[in-house]
Amino acid sequence: MKNTKGIIFCAIFALFSYFICKCGFCKSINLNSLTLAIIIGMIIGNVFNKFIPEGFRCGITFSAKRLLRLAIVLYGFRITFQQIFAVGLQGFWADVIMLTTTYLLGYYLGTRVFKLDKDLCMLTAIGSSVCGAAAVLGTDSMLKADSHKVSLAVSTVVLFGTISMFLYPFLAGLGFVSQDVFGIYIGSTIHEVAQVVAAGSAVSPQVCDTSVIVKLTRVMMLVPYLFLLGWYLSKKSHTKRTKVPMPWFAIMFVVMCGFNSLNLLPTSVQSGIVEFDIFLLTVAMFALGVETNFEKIKGLGLKPILLAGIMFVWLVAFGVVTVRFIV
Q1: Which of 72, 204, 221, 238 is the most exposed place for a label (fewest CB within 10 A)?
Q2: How many CA atoms are closer than 13 Å to the CA of 317, on its beta-carbon side?
Q3: What are phi and psi of 175, to 5 degrees?
Q4: What residues does each domain of the chain span?
C-alpha cells in the first residue's frame, strides 16, 4: 500500500505527542496532543521538509484528509442527540448568519474592490465561510477553475485557519464571549473541522464538543450551497448540472451520534473508541502541520491574502457580535 510509510511516519510523531501530553506539566498548561502535533508538524514540514522521502507524501496527505474524516466520524461517540438538542437553534442561526455574511462580503470585496477573478473570489469566499479546503474542492468540482486558483484559495484557508487555532484559546480568556457559548463561537467562525477540533480542545472538552456539533452543522450547509451553485451554473451555461458531492463524513458523524445516544456500548468500549479517536485526530493534526508550507503561502501575492484576511477579521469580530446577539 503506497500510503503505509507516510501513515507510519505520522503515527510515530502522533504517539510521541499523545504520550508527552499525558504528563502533569502539559496538563497544567492545558497543552493537548492535537496542538503539540500540529506545531511539531509545521516545524518538520518547513524546516526539515527536504529530508522527508517522496514516498511518504501520499501517506501524509492521506492522514491529513482521509484519516481526519474517519476521526470526525468516530467523534460521534463523544456526543449524543441530547447534547445536540441542548445546543439548539442558537448554533444553527450562528452558522447561517456567519456563512451568509462572510460569503457575500468576500465575493463583493473580491470582485468589486480587489478586482480579482470571479472563480478565485468564489473559492476563497466559500473556503472561509463554510468548511475550508473541503468547501473549496467541492465548489471547484463544479466550477472547474484553474488549479492555481484552487491552490490560492486553499492556502489562504490554511494560513488563517492555523492562526485561528492559536488565537481562539487566547480569546477564551478575555471574556468577550462566555464559556458556555464559546463552542458556538468557534464552530461558526473557524475555517476547517480540524482547526475547530484543535482550538476547541485547547479550551475545554465541553467547548470542543459544542464547537464540533456547530461546525459539522455548518459543513452540511455545503450541500444546499452546491445545489444552488449547480442550478446557477446550469442556467448560465444551459447544460446539465454537475453531480453534487456529498459530505458523507458529516452525515456518518450524525449517524454515530444517534448510535451513541442509545447507550448500547459498555462504558469501557466507548472510552476506548474515544481514546483511539484522539490518537487519529493527533495523526491528522501532525499531517496537516507537515503540509502547511509557509513558502507557498508567501508566494500567493497580496490581494488574495488581503481578501482572506478581511474575511478572517470579520469572522472573529462579527462572530462575537452574532453569538452575543443570538444568546
Answers
A1: 238
A2: 6
A3: 80, 15
A4: 4-326
Taking CA 216 as the corner, what is the angle to CA 212 and CA 220, rounded to the nearest 5 degrees? Answer: 175
**Which among 46, 65, 20 is positioned nearest to 290, based on CA atoms?**
46
- Name, in order, each residue with C-beta under 8 angstroms of 325's C-beta and a sequence gap of 6 or more: none
For residues 19 and 251, which has the higher predicted lDDT (pLDDT)?
19
Which of 10, 3, 19, 4 has the alpha carbon at shortest distance from 44? 10
Secondary structure element (H or E) that encloses residue 32, with its range: none
Angle, alpha carbons 58-124-217 (nearest 5°): 80
Would the pLDDT of 238 be above 60?
A: no
Q: How far apart are the first and last CA of the chain?
A: 50
- Listed in sequence order, the residues at least 6 apart from 109 whose beta carbon sits closer than 8 Å to its beta carbon are 307, 310
Cβ proximity of 21 and 32 under 8 Å: yes
pLDDT, position 30 = 62
DSSP strands (E only) in 195-255: none
Query: Which pTM does this prediction carry?
Result: 0.74
The alpha carbon of 139 is separated from its chain's Cα centroid by a whole number of angstroms, namely 16
Q: Alpha-carbon dihedral of residues 294, 308, 90, 74, nearest 10 degrees? A: -30
C-beta neighbour count of 88 within 10 angstroms? 10
From CA 106, how far away is CA 124, in angstroms rounded? 7
DSSP calls for 134-149:
HHHHHHHHHH---HHH
Rounded Cα–Cα distance for residues 137 and 151 (Å): 10
Residues whose CB falls within 8 Å of the CB of residue 138, separated by 6 or more in sequence, listed in order: 222, 226, 245, 247
Q: Are 153 and 120 in contact (CB under 8 A)?
A: yes
- 320 pLDDT exceeds 80? yes
Residue the block writes with cell 468516530? 74
State the Cα–Cα distance between residues 201 and 21, nearest whole angstrom: 13
Give the pLDDT mean for 108-137.
Answer: 88
Residue 298 has pLDDT above 80, yes or no: no
